[in-house]
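Reply to dn_fold:

You asked what the input looked like. This is it:
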Amino acid sequence: METKLFKRLGWFCVPSSALGFILCLLAAGFLATVFVAVDRHSHSATDTLYGVFPFAVCTFLLLDWIGRRATERLA
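and this is what came back:
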């Protein structure tokens, strides 16, 4: 029996299992930690956005890649 971690909803992949939901929570927790660490040493909102942007892009791309692969098939 195949288990689907995510399901497609238009352009997005939404979690459809507990493991998919945990992956989303881990990504959100990582980004919150990065935001706090970067914001602690920044002097303006622009500094914070410039510092968080690379981590956010990589995290969202990884989560999107996992979501797209997990909607195809997972044995």
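The mean pLDDT is 89.
Hope that clears it up.
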